[in-house]
Write a structure and sequence with these properties.
Elements lengths: L3 H28 L6 H17 L22 E3 L5 E3 H24 L4
Antiparallel strand pairs: 1-2
Helix pairs in contact: 2-3
């Protein structure tokens, strides 16, 4: 039979060993990352090519913002169907910027394989 001090020391030792084992297992799982399979490499290549074809076109596709946040609300507002107000100039500029971005995302998605 162990006295209280020895029992506490033994429990502490057990807990330290458990913690060390957890850390060792975590390290082992991080180190042993498998290489992608040939199918995964092919998929990576297809996705990369799709990205390059649709998004990596350099900066010429980027549009400069024609309005700043502080300009919003300076144009006349019209009533929206939901009862709110809409700044038509800001909305028009927003659609000019977002539409090409959405088109690029759709073009990218079309180039991806269906799995």
């Amino acid at each position: 039979v162990l006295d209280d001090n020895k029992r506490l020391a033994y429990r502490k030792l057990i807990e330290e060993n458990r913690e060390k084992r957890r850390k060792d297992e975590m390290q082992k799982s991080l180190v042993q990352k498998p290489e992608p399979t040939s199918e995964e490499w092919e998929l990576i290549q297809v996705v990369t090519e799709a990205h390059v074809a649709t998004n990596a076109q350099g900066s010429h596709w980027k549009q400069k913002r024609k309005f700043l946040p502080e300009d919003i609300g300076q144009a006349p507002l019209v009533n929206a169907p939901e009862g709110g107000k809409v700044d038509l100039e800001a909305f028009s500029q927003f659609t000019k910027i977002i539409t090409p971005a959405i088109t690029r995302v759709v073009d990218f998605a079309k180039k991806l394989p269906i799995v």
